Amino acid sequence: MINVIIAKGQKIDVTKGRGIEEIAIGLTWKTISPEVDINASAFLLNSLGICTRDEDMIFYNQHISREQAVIHTGPENGSLEIIRISVKKIPPDIEKIALTLTIHEGETKGQSFSNVSDALCRIFNPVSGEELASFNFGEDLNKETAIVIGELYFHKGEWKFNAVGSGFNGGLTALVKNFGLEVDETTQNETPAEIDKTPLTIPGTVTPMKLELKKKEKINIHKSEKVTATLEWETKKDLDLYCFYVTKNNEVGKIYYRNLGSPYNPPYIQLDGDALVHGKETIIIHQPEALRFVLFAAYSAIKNGFGSFKSMKVRAVVDNHQGQVVATPLHKRNSFSYWVAIAHIDFTRPNEMIVSHVEEYSRSMVERSPVLYEDGSFKMNVGIAEFK
């Protein structure tokens, strides 16, 4: 079979039509000096692109994942490092595997991917030796010390490969934070930055990251030109996403199924239709600079009966479309509330916005909605009653 040469941003089928159970990723490169120490890593990610367990990070101190689904080996068959993936052993909660390279202590030693050439990713069948595709990457990098080569991802029952080729600063520490894990001295021999939920800040850049907030936790992310908030749930019940807002002119209001909003008129917020079925509703904020605060809340109509929002696996996912995605799941079981306020965003800072996990419920069997005030505070049970 002819080897497919793929370009940055291209997606290809890997398992479809082949019936292969083993995939190997062979990595090679050249450096200007043997002192440039490059290491491959793999991150096993869930549907949100988050690595939820330490054992799902495969690197030089941990070569085998759970279920032995992913194994990291050294030089072999012309490759400097190889990542082997057993498709049938991949845990069911894993939907994506990110493949990366980092330069060990690159910032300290003044080394970057500008010192690296001829970087090549080969995708092949380790059983037959058949090469399926190859991807030359990294030629456009300069001062970066970490690179996401590509992603093997699950789609409609098959595994595909997405050629990413995206680099950023911070080495392995930055990658670990990017994929939702905390940093300690076992992941890198560098002295790590203070461990918290604040993304690494690089002047002129936006550091990608994906994480879930714990109860009452908050995080600062980059203020972008467009923000989306998606309400997701796993039940056949009909839930509704509400976006309560305060504009820069201190006008207050809400976007919901009876007022879908518009990208062209203030407050430049739009609800992407009333889903009417279970699964997902999306709010799009087209001009974040026109706002001071927003509050995202979910409403469960009386006809749904009672049931915990948590048991429905309700969550809000905020995306700034610059690689920063923040999920706010629910942690408390409350079976008699029609309303839950989930996430709050403060837009008042010049270049960043503060996403907060709030999780506040209405009183038992009370239909009155939340209210968001001009100062950004909010109260439950004081708005109008909602009947759908």
Structure description:
- With 388 residues, the protein is mainly β.
- It has 2 helices and 26 strands.
- The N and C termini lie far apart (58 Å).
In short:
It is built from 2 helices and 26 strands. By secondary structure, it is mainly beta.
Largest sheet, described in full?
A: 6 strands, mixed
Judged by helices, strands and strand pairing, the structural class is mainly beta
Question: In what order do the strands lie side by side in the largest sheet?
Answer: 1-10-9-3-7-6
Helix content: under 10%
H and E order? EEEEEEEEHEEEEHEEEEEEEEEEEEEE
State the end-to-end CA separation: 58 Å
User: CATH superfamily name of the largest domain?
Assistant: sav2460 like domains
Number of domains: 2
Total helical elements = 2
CATH topology of the largest domain: Lipoxygenase-1
The dominant shape is elongated
Global mean pLDDT: 86
The CATH architecture category of the largest domain equals Sandwich
Radius of gyration computed on alpha carbons? 23 Å
- The tally of strands reads 26
CATH C-level class of the largest domain = Mainly Beta
Low-confidence runs: 185-205
Proportion of residues in β-strands:
35-45%
